[in-house]
Every structure is written in C-alpha cells, then in structure tokens.
Amino acid sequence: MPLPLPPIVVALSGLSSTGKSTVASYLPSIFPPPRYTLTILHVDDFYKPQSELPLRESLLDWDCAGSLDWSRLADTVTKWRDGEKVEGGQVNPQPECGGSAGGEAGKEDAGGGITKTRVEELRDAVRREIKAGPRILILDGFLLFTPSVPSTFRSLLDSKILLRAPYAQAKRRREARRGYSTMEGWWEDPPEYFDKVVWPNYVDENRGWFVGGDVEGTVDEEACEREGVRVCDGEEGGLGEVLSWVVGEIMGKVEKG
Length: 257
Fold this sequence. Notes:
Layout: E1 8-14, H1 20-30, E2 37-42, E3 55-56, E4 59-60, H2 70-81, E5 90-91, H3 116-129, E6 135-140, H4 151-154, E7 159-163, H5 167-176, E8 180-182, E9 185-187, H6 193-206, H7 221-227, E10 229-232, H8 239-256
Parallel strand pairs: 1-6, 1-7, 2-6, 7-10
Antiparallel strand pairs: 2-5, 3-4, 8-9
Helix pairs in contact: 1-8, 3-8
C-alpha cells in the first residue's frame, strides 16, 4: 500500500480585492471529496482586536502584518497539519445555493470569467493527473509571506502564490465595497483609505518581488525563485484564467510531493 501523501499548505495572497476569496471558493469543486480533502482558512478571522491595531496616517491599519495574530494563526495551521480539526476551517465547503459545486462554482460565470464549464474541465484534469490527493489547506489572506510576516509562520507554507491587480482596478474594487464585518461590529473605509493605507502597505511589503521595486512592473524571477514565491501576472483573461493558473500551481505542488 502506498504511503499517504504529506499535507500541503497553500498561501493564496495578494492585494485586497484581487479576487483571492473568489478563486478560493471554487477550489473545493475542483478538488472534491472523497478523493481530496481541501480546507479553506480565511486569514481575516485572525485579526487582533480593533483596540490593538496599529495606525498609519492616523488611521486604523487593517492591512499590515501588525494587525494579525500570527501566533494563533501558526498554531491553527500546525494543528491542521497534525490532523486536528481547526476552528474556522471550512472542510470541502458546499454552496449555500445547492448543487454539486463548492463555493460560488454553482453559479454560471459568477466570478468574472469563471464558468461552470471551466470548473468542470479543471476538475476533470485534476482527476486524471492526481489519483489520490493529500490533504490541502488553502490560506486566503492579504498578507502571508512578505518580510514583515514572522519567519516561524512562513516556514509552515508549502506553496506561496501572489495574485496581482493594477492600482486602478484594485482601488475601484476596494472602494466599491460597503464595508467589512469585524469582531467589534462593522468597519467602513474612511475617505482616502486605499491611498493612505491599503496601497502603501502593499507596496512596502511586496516591492521585493518586482524589478526595481515597481509592483506594477516586471516580476523579479530570481527574487521569487529564491523565496519560493509564484506570481500570477493579473487578470488579462479574467478570473477564469487566474483560477486555472492557481489550480495548475496546486497540481504541480501535489505531483512534486
């Protein structure tokens, strides 16, 4: 009998409003049970209390490493790797609207180019290539493996994926959101929050992956290779293409073991 494959922790990171959560929501449909066990953990569930958040430009900073409880998150990932059930982890989540697809995948073209046909084709490809999969943990978060993240946490990651979006697109998406549910209630971005907090944090944390520190420029392949970071170059083909790329990255990691 072959030995079970080791569990895999996939960090799906990137600037706020790049489609991380949308992409993650389709993965349970593509890696379905019982052959695969895929758990999604949303890093937004690991914020510190609002009273402990740092400030930037005199504003509460929800978008920096100092806003997250890394010790609790690392402990949760370690428990998952050891086979324990973890609080907040969604194991093979199913759609609220019914059907056989996970997350948003039951909705035709619900995710900007992510069609039911594309999801089915990706699921078939995974079945052909990976007969029996390992347990997979998807970490969905805005900041997961940049320099300010504790090295003890970064060492827990098997796959580091960065999703990109140009400034104008990310700003438009972020500012279109009504707000966010927090432990304390409801948060709405104050005026100019994207330009004063969100974008500067992204640039500060991710400039190292790009030539000349230009986060809208060319990927620094040598720097990314050195740190094991894979960068998805954006959404020219829509989120459908991004999903296909992410699935390919996960398959490659599973096949390498």
